[in-house]
Amino acid sequence: MQLKAEALAGHLNRGRLERLYCVSGDEPLLAEEALDTLRTAARAAGFTEREVLHASGKFDWSLLTNAANSLSLFAQRKIIEIRLPAGKPGRDGGDALRLHAASANDDVLTLVVLPRLDRTARNSAWATALESNGAWIEVRRVERSQLPAWLRARLARQKHTASTETLEFLADQIEGNLLAAQQEIAKLGLLYPAGELTREQVAEAVQDVARFEVFDLPTVMLSGETQRAVRMLNVLRAEGAALPLILWAITEEVRAVLRAQQVIAAGRPVATLAREMRMWPGRDRLLEMAAARVPAAVAATLLTRCADIDRLSKGLRVPTRDTDPWLELADLVLDVASTRRNPTEPSANRETRLQTA
Questions:
Q1: Alpha carbon of 124 to those of 61, 113, 228: distances in Å?
Q2: What is the rounded distance in angstroms from the CA atom of residue 232 to the CA atom of residue 175?
Q3: What is the pLDDT along the chain (357 residues), one digit of tens a residue?
Q4: Is 297 within 8 Å of 343 (Cβ atoms)?
Q5: Checking CA distances to 174, which of 89, 164, 250, 320 falls within 20 to 30 Å?
Q6: DSSP reduced 3-state for 3
Q7: Helix H segments across 239-318?
Q8: Environment class of residue 205 by beta-carbon count within 10 Å: exposed (0-12), middle (13-18) or buried (19+)?
Q9: Backbone angles phi, psi at 70, to 5 degrees
Q10: How far apart are CA 321 and CA 305, in angstroms?
Q11: For residue 20, what are the CA distances in angstroms to 2, 98, 106, 135, 150?
Protein backbone atom coordinates (compact mmCIF):
# COMPACT_ATOMS: atom_id res chain seq x y z
CA MET A 1 0.00 0.00 0.00
CA GLN A 2 0.99 3.62 -0.42
CA LEU A 3 1.30 5.80 2.66
CA LYS A 4 1.92 9.54 2.86
CA ALA A 5 4.77 10.57 5.14
CA GLU A 6 2.50 12.91 7.11
CA ALA A 7 0.10 10.01 7.73
CA LEU A 8 2.78 7.71 9.14
CA ALA A 9 2.27 8.66 12.80
CA GLY A 10 -1.46 8.03 12.56
CA HIS A 11 -0.83 4.70 10.86
CA LEU A 12 1.50 3.58 13.64
CA ASN A 13 -0.82 4.84 16.38
CA ARG A 14 -3.36 2.28 15.23
CA GLY A 15 -1.02 -0.29 16.72
CA ARG A 16 -0.07 -2.47 13.77
CA LEU A 17 3.33 -2.60 12.09
CA GLU A 18 3.62 -3.81 8.53
CA ARG A 19 6.37 -6.33 7.88
CA LEU A 20 8.04 -4.07 5.34
CA TYR A 21 8.31 -0.33 4.74
CA CYS A 22 9.93 1.49 1.83
CA VAL A 23 10.97 5.10 2.43
CA SER A 24 11.63 6.83 -0.88
CA GLY A 25 12.44 10.48 -1.59
CA ASP A 26 15.04 13.19 -2.04
CA GLU A 27 14.52 15.08 1.24
CA PRO A 28 17.14 13.55 3.60
CA LEU A 29 15.73 15.26 6.70
CA LEU A 30 12.14 14.07 6.15
CA ALA A 31 13.25 10.59 5.10
CA GLU A 32 15.39 10.18 8.22
CA GLU A 33 12.57 11.47 10.43
CA ALA A 34 10.22 8.89 8.92
CA LEU A 35 12.80 6.17 9.56
CA ASP A 36 13.30 7.34 13.15
CA THR A 37 9.54 7.16 13.69
CA LEU A 38 9.47 3.60 12.34
CA ARG A 39 12.46 2.52 14.44
CA THR A 40 10.88 3.95 17.60
CA ALA A 41 7.63 2.10 16.95
CA ALA A 42 9.57 -1.07 16.17
CA ARG A 43 11.55 -0.92 19.42
CA ALA A 44 8.31 -0.49 21.33
CA ALA A 45 7.02 -3.62 19.59
CA GLY A 46 10.04 -5.69 20.67
CA PHE A 47 12.38 -5.34 17.70
CA THR A 48 15.54 -4.97 19.72
CA GLU A 49 18.15 -5.91 17.09
CA ARG A 50 19.00 -3.88 13.99
CA GLU A 51 21.14 -4.83 11.02
CA VAL A 52 21.99 -2.37 8.24
CA LEU A 53 22.86 -3.54 4.72
CA HIS A 54 24.41 -0.99 2.35
CA ALA A 55 23.46 -2.36 -1.06
CA SER A 56 25.75 -0.41 -3.34
CA GLY A 57 28.22 -1.53 -5.98
CA LYS A 58 28.67 -5.28 -6.19
CA PHE A 59 26.61 -6.11 -3.13
CA ASP A 60 26.26 -9.77 -2.17
CA TRP A 61 22.48 -10.21 -1.96
CA SER A 62 22.86 -13.53 -0.14
CA LEU A 63 23.58 -11.36 2.91
CA LEU A 64 19.91 -10.34 2.90
CA THR A 65 18.79 -13.95 3.11
CA ASN A 66 21.30 -14.66 5.89
CA ALA A 67 20.17 -11.59 7.84
CA ALA A 68 16.52 -12.59 7.58
CA ASN A 69 17.19 -16.15 8.76
CA SER A 70 19.49 -15.38 11.67
CA LEU A 71 18.49 -13.90 15.01
CA SER A 72 20.91 -13.33 17.85
CA LEU A 73 20.56 -15.22 21.12
CA PHE A 74 19.47 -12.03 22.85
CA ALA A 75 16.79 -10.81 20.41
CA GLN A 76 13.49 -12.38 19.41
CA ARG A 77 12.78 -9.81 16.69
CA LYS A 78 15.02 -7.71 14.45
CA ILE A 79 15.02 -4.82 12.00
CA ILE A 80 16.77 -5.22 8.66
CA GLU A 81 17.53 -1.88 7.06
CA ILE A 82 18.44 -2.06 3.37
CA ARG A 83 19.93 1.14 1.96
CA LEU A 84 19.90 1.48 -1.83
CA PRO A 85 21.60 4.83 -2.51
CA ALA A 86 21.34 4.46 -6.29
CA GLY A 87 17.81 3.07 -6.26
CA LYS A 88 18.85 0.33 -8.69
CA PRO A 89 19.35 -3.13 -7.19
CA GLY A 90 20.15 -4.81 -10.50
CA ARG A 91 18.72 -8.13 -11.63
CA ASP A 92 20.06 -10.17 -8.70
CA GLY A 93 19.00 -7.53 -6.21
CA GLY A 94 15.55 -7.22 -7.75
CA ASP A 95 15.05 -10.98 -7.49
CA ALA A 96 16.31 -11.00 -3.90
CA LEU A 97 14.01 -8.16 -2.89
CA ARG A 98 10.96 -9.80 -4.49
CA LEU A 99 11.70 -13.11 -2.74
CA HIS A 100 12.35 -11.38 0.58
CA ALA A 101 9.14 -9.35 0.36
CA ALA A 102 7.08 -12.46 -0.34
CA SER A 103 8.65 -14.50 2.47
CA ALA A 104 8.81 -11.87 5.23
CA ASN A 105 7.74 -13.03 8.70
CA ASP A 106 6.44 -11.25 11.78
CA ASP A 107 9.79 -11.43 13.59
CA VAL A 108 11.63 -9.40 10.94
CA LEU A 109 10.80 -5.82 10.11
CA THR A 110 12.37 -4.65 6.84
CA LEU A 111 13.07 -0.99 6.07
CA VAL A 112 14.15 -0.22 2.50
CA VAL A 113 15.64 3.25 2.00
CA LEU A 114 15.63 4.61 -1.55
CA PRO A 115 15.98 7.89 -3.42
CA ARG A 116 12.98 9.06 -5.42
CA LEU A 117 12.56 6.60 -8.30
CA ASP A 118 11.80 7.43 -11.91
CA ARG A 119 8.67 5.96 -13.49
CA THR A 120 10.43 2.92 -14.93
CA ALA A 121 12.01 1.90 -11.63
CA ARG A 122 8.82 2.67 -9.70
CA ASN A 123 6.85 0.28 -11.94
CA SER A 124 9.46 -2.49 -11.85
CA ALA A 125 8.63 -5.94 -10.55
CA TRP A 126 10.77 -5.56 -7.42
CA ALA A 127 9.28 -2.17 -6.46
CA THR A 128 5.76 -3.49 -7.05
CA ALA A 129 6.51 -6.50 -4.85
CA LEU A 130 7.78 -4.29 -2.02
CA GLU A 131 4.69 -2.10 -2.13
CA SER A 132 2.32 -5.07 -2.35
CA ASN A 133 3.82 -6.74 0.71
CA GLY A 134 4.15 -3.66 2.91
CA ALA A 135 3.85 0.12 2.84
CA TRP A 136 5.53 2.51 0.41
CA ILE A 137 6.19 5.93 1.94
CA GLU A 138 6.92 8.63 -0.63
CA VAL A 139 8.74 11.53 1.02
CA ARG A 140 7.82 14.48 -1.15
CA ARG A 141 9.91 17.57 -1.63
CA VAL A 142 8.76 20.65 0.24
CA GLU A 143 8.20 23.22 -2.51
CA ARG A 144 8.94 26.89 -2.01
CA SER A 145 5.24 27.73 -1.77
CA GLN A 146 4.88 25.18 1.05
CA LEU A 147 7.89 26.32 3.06
CA PRO A 148 6.18 29.04 5.20
CA ALA A 149 3.58 26.54 6.44
CA TRP A 150 6.29 23.93 7.05
CA LEU A 151 8.34 26.46 9.01
CA ARG A 152 5.30 27.57 11.02
CA ALA A 153 4.67 23.97 12.08
CA ARG A 154 8.34 23.41 12.99
CA LEU A 155 8.51 26.62 15.02
CA ALA A 156 5.30 25.68 16.83
CA ARG A 157 7.03 22.54 18.14
CA GLN A 158 9.31 24.80 20.18
CA LYS A 159 6.47 27.20 21.04
CA HIS A 160 7.50 29.91 18.60
CA THR A 161 5.30 31.90 16.23
CA ALA A 162 6.16 34.32 13.43
CA SER A 163 4.39 36.66 11.06
CA THR A 164 3.84 35.81 7.41
CA GLU A 165 6.55 38.31 6.42
CA THR A 166 9.05 36.71 8.80
CA LEU A 167 8.20 33.21 7.56
CA GLU A 168 8.69 34.30 3.94
CA PHE A 169 12.08 35.79 4.81
CA LEU A 170 13.08 32.62 6.66
CA ALA A 171 11.92 30.49 3.72
CA ASP A 172 14.19 32.45 1.39
CA GLN A 173 17.13 31.80 3.71
CA ILE A 174 16.69 28.02 3.93
CA GLU A 175 15.09 27.01 0.63
CA GLY A 176 16.37 23.72 -0.75
CA ASN A 177 18.29 22.76 2.40
CA LEU A 178 15.97 21.33 5.05
CA LEU A 179 18.78 19.69 7.01
CA ALA A 180 20.39 23.07 7.61
CA ALA A 181 16.94 24.61 8.07
CA GLN A 182 16.28 22.32 11.02
CA GLN A 183 19.55 23.42 12.59
CA GLU A 184 18.64 27.08 12.12
CA ILE A 185 15.22 26.50 13.69
CA ALA A 186 16.87 24.76 16.66
CA LYS A 187 19.23 27.72 16.96
CA LEU A 188 16.25 30.08 17.23
CA GLY A 189 14.89 27.86 20.00
CA LEU A 190 18.12 28.26 21.94
CA LEU A 191 18.45 32.01 21.42
CA TYR A 192 14.92 33.23 22.04
CA PRO A 193 12.21 32.36 24.57
CA ALA A 194 8.82 31.01 23.55
CA GLY A 195 6.60 33.51 21.80
CA GLU A 196 6.63 35.50 18.57
CA LEU A 197 9.87 35.89 16.65
CA THR A 198 10.43 39.20 14.89
CA ARG A 199 11.97 39.54 11.46
CA GLU A 200 14.92 41.35 13.02
CA GLN A 201 15.58 38.46 15.42
CA VAL A 202 15.45 35.92 12.60
CA ALA A 203 17.68 38.05 10.33
CA GLU A 204 20.26 38.38 13.09
CA ALA A 205 20.33 34.69 13.98
CA VAL A 206 19.74 32.73 10.76
CA GLN A 207 22.41 32.22 8.12
CA ASP A 208 21.69 32.06 4.41
CA VAL A 209 21.85 28.30 3.83
CA ALA A 210 19.66 28.09 0.71
CA ARG A 211 20.68 25.47 -1.83
CA PHE A 212 19.32 24.93 -5.33
CA GLU A 213 19.45 22.29 -8.04
CA VAL A 214 20.43 23.28 -11.57
CA PHE A 215 17.14 22.06 -13.02
CA ASP A 216 15.10 24.17 -10.58
CA LEU A 217 16.29 27.35 -12.29
CA PRO A 218 14.53 26.93 -15.67
CA THR A 219 11.22 26.22 -13.93
CA VAL A 220 11.48 29.38 -11.82
CA MET A 221 12.51 31.33 -14.92
CA LEU A 222 9.44 30.15 -16.83
CA SER A 223 7.13 30.98 -13.92
CA GLY A 224 8.29 34.61 -13.98
CA GLU A 225 9.80 34.68 -10.47
CA THR A 226 12.47 37.23 -11.34
CA GLN A 227 14.08 37.80 -7.95
CA ARG A 228 14.12 34.10 -7.12
CA ALA A 229 15.61 33.20 -10.50
CA VAL A 230 18.47 35.68 -10.06
CA ARG A 231 19.07 34.46 -6.51
CA MET A 232 19.19 30.85 -7.73
CA LEU A 233 21.70 31.70 -10.42
CA ASN A 234 23.92 33.57 -7.96
CA VAL A 235 23.83 30.68 -5.45
CA LEU A 236 24.58 28.10 -8.15
CA ARG A 237 27.53 30.16 -9.35
CA ALA A 238 28.85 30.59 -5.80
CA GLU A 239 28.62 26.83 -5.24
CA GLY A 240 30.65 26.11 -8.36
CA ALA A 241 27.88 24.72 -10.54
CA ALA A 242 28.98 24.09 -14.13
CA LEU A 243 27.89 26.91 -16.41
CA PRO A 244 27.57 24.63 -19.47
CA LEU A 245 25.05 22.44 -17.61
CA ILE A 246 23.01 25.47 -16.51
CA LEU A 247 23.13 26.90 -20.02
CA TRP A 248 22.01 23.59 -21.53
CA ALA A 249 19.02 23.39 -19.15
CA ILE A 250 18.01 26.98 -19.91
CA THR A 251 18.49 26.54 -23.67
CA GLU A 252 16.14 23.55 -23.66
CA GLU A 253 13.45 25.70 -22.04
CA VAL A 254 14.12 28.57 -24.44
CA ARG A 255 13.54 26.21 -27.37
CA ALA A 256 10.32 25.02 -25.74
CA VAL A 257 9.13 28.62 -25.25
CA LEU A 258 9.78 29.40 -28.91
CA ARG A 259 7.89 26.28 -29.97
CA ALA A 260 5.03 27.26 -27.68
CA GLN A 261 4.88 30.69 -29.34
CA GLN A 262 4.72 29.01 -32.75
CA VAL A 263 1.93 26.69 -31.57
CA ILE A 264 -0.07 29.60 -30.15
CA ALA A 265 0.43 31.60 -33.36
CA ALA A 266 -0.96 28.65 -35.32
CA GLY A 267 -4.09 28.65 -33.17
CA ARG A 268 -3.32 25.41 -31.37
CA PRO A 269 -3.36 24.90 -27.59
CA VAL A 270 0.00 24.44 -25.86
CA ALA A 271 -1.40 21.22 -24.37
CA THR A 272 -0.91 19.57 -27.77
CA LEU A 273 2.77 20.47 -27.64
CA ALA A 274 2.94 19.04 -24.13
CA ARG A 275 1.61 15.71 -25.37
CA GLU A 276 3.99 15.65 -28.33
CA MET A 277 7.00 16.39 -26.11
CA ARG A 278 5.79 14.21 -23.22
CA MET A 279 6.21 17.05 -20.76
CA TRP A 280 5.89 16.66 -17.00
CA PRO A 281 2.54 17.86 -15.59
CA GLY A 282 2.27 21.64 -15.30
CA ARG A 283 5.08 22.46 -17.70
CA ASP A 284 2.64 23.37 -20.49
CA ARG A 285 1.06 26.02 -18.25
CA LEU A 286 4.48 27.52 -17.47
CA LEU A 287 5.43 27.54 -21.14
CA GLU A 288 2.17 29.23 -22.05
CA MET A 289 2.83 31.94 -19.43
CA ALA A 290 6.38 32.50 -20.67
CA ALA A 291 5.33 32.49 -24.34
CA ALA A 292 2.81 35.24 -23.63
CA ARG A 293 5.26 37.21 -21.48
CA VAL A 294 8.38 37.25 -23.67
CA PRO A 295 8.20 40.07 -26.28
CA ALA A 296 8.74 39.14 -29.90
CA ALA A 297 11.85 41.35 -30.07
CA VAL A 298 13.40 39.37 -27.22
CA ALA A 299 12.22 35.95 -28.41
CA ALA A 300 13.90 36.47 -31.79
CA THR A 301 17.31 36.78 -30.11
CA LEU A 302 17.13 34.05 -27.47
CA LEU A 303 18.81 31.10 -29.21
CA THR A 304 21.51 33.32 -30.70
CA ARG A 305 22.27 34.64 -27.23
CA CYS A 306 22.47 31.10 -25.86
CA ALA A 307 25.03 30.28 -28.56
CA ASP A 308 26.97 33.45 -27.73
CA ILE A 309 27.07 32.52 -24.03
CA ASP A 310 28.39 29.08 -24.99
CA ARG A 311 31.22 30.73 -26.92
CA LEU A 312 32.00 33.06 -24.02
CA SER A 313 32.16 30.10 -21.61
CA LYS A 314 34.87 28.61 -23.87
CA GLY A 315 36.97 31.77 -23.70
CA LEU A 316 35.98 33.16 -27.10
CA ARG A 317 35.13 36.82 -27.52
CA VAL A 318 31.74 37.78 -28.91
CA PRO A 319 31.23 41.33 -30.22
CA THR A 320 28.52 43.31 -28.37
CA ARG A 321 28.51 40.79 -25.49
CA ASP A 322 30.06 41.15 -22.05
CA THR A 323 33.17 39.05 -21.47
CA ASP A 324 31.58 37.48 -18.38
CA PRO A 325 29.30 34.61 -19.52
CA TRP A 326 27.56 34.53 -16.12
CA LEU A 327 26.48 38.13 -16.57
CA GLU A 328 25.11 37.40 -20.02
CA LEU A 329 23.34 34.32 -18.65
CA ALA A 330 21.74 36.37 -15.89
CA ASP A 331 20.61 38.89 -18.52
CA LEU A 332 19.01 36.08 -20.52
CA VAL A 333 17.24 34.65 -17.47
CA LEU A 334 15.87 38.10 -16.65
CA ASP A 335 14.58 38.60 -20.19
CA VAL A 336 12.61 35.34 -20.04
CA ALA A 337 11.41 35.76 -16.45
CA SER A 338 10.48 39.42 -16.40
CA THR A 339 7.88 41.50 -18.20
CA ARG A 340 9.57 44.72 -17.09
CA ARG A 341 12.69 44.37 -19.23
CA ASN A 342 13.29 46.59 -22.26
CA PRO A 343 15.00 44.55 -25.02
CA THR A 344 16.74 47.70 -26.30
CA GLU A 345 18.14 48.62 -22.89
CA PRO A 346 21.94 48.92 -22.92
CA SER A 347 23.96 46.50 -20.82
CA ALA A 348 25.92 49.08 -18.81
CA ASN A 349 23.82 48.76 -15.66
CA ARG A 350 23.37 44.99 -15.54
CA GLU A 351 25.09 44.63 -12.20
CA THR A 352 22.70 47.16 -10.68
CA ARG A 353 19.71 45.41 -12.19
CA LEU A 354 20.86 42.05 -10.81
CA GLN A 355 21.09 43.49 -7.31
CA THR A 356 17.65 45.09 -7.42
CA ALA A 357 15.65 42.67 -9.60
A1: 18, 16, 37
A2: 10
A3: 888 888 888 888 887 788 999 999 988 999 999 999 999 999 998 898 899 999 887 889 999 888 888 776 666 789 999 999 988 888 899 999 999 998 878 888 999 999 998 888 888 999 999 999 999 999 988 999 999 999 999 999 999 999 999 999 999 999 989 999 999 999 999 999 999 999 999 999 998 888 899 998 999 999 998 889 999 999 999 999 999 999 999 999 898 888 888 888 888 887 777 777 777 677 778 888 888 888 888 888 899 999 999 999 999 989 888 889 999 999 999 989 886 545 445 443 444 345 444
A4: yes
A5: 250
A6: strand
A7: 243-265, 270-277, 283-293, 296-299, 302-313
A8: middle
A9: -125, 125
A10: 9
A11: 12, 12, 10, 6, 28
Query: Identity (one letter) of the amino acid at 2?
Result: Q
Q: How far apart are CA 322 and CA 209, in angstroms?
A: 30
24 vs 31: CA distance, rounded Å: 7
Nearest to 252, CA basis, from 301, 306, 291, 305: 306
- Give the span between the Cα atoms of 241 and 266, in whole angstroms: 38
Query: Per this entry, what is the length of the chain?
Result: 357
Residue 147 to residue 223: CA distance in whole angstroms:
18
Element (H, E) at 191: helix 178-191
**Widest CA span in the chain:** 79
Cβ of 330: how many Cβ atoms within 10 Å? 22
Give whole-number Cα distances, 354 to 70, 89, 120, 160, in Å.
62, 45, 41, 35
What is the C-alpha to C-alpha distance for residues 132 and 341, in angstroms, rounded to an integer? 53
Packing angle of the helix pair 216-223, 243-265 (nearest 10 deg): 40
Output the pTM of the full model: 0.75
**C-alpha span between 313 and 114 (Å, rounded):** 36
Query: How much is the CA Rg of the chain, to the nearest whole Å?
Result: 25
Evaluate whether 162 touches 156 at the Cβ level (below 8 Å).
no
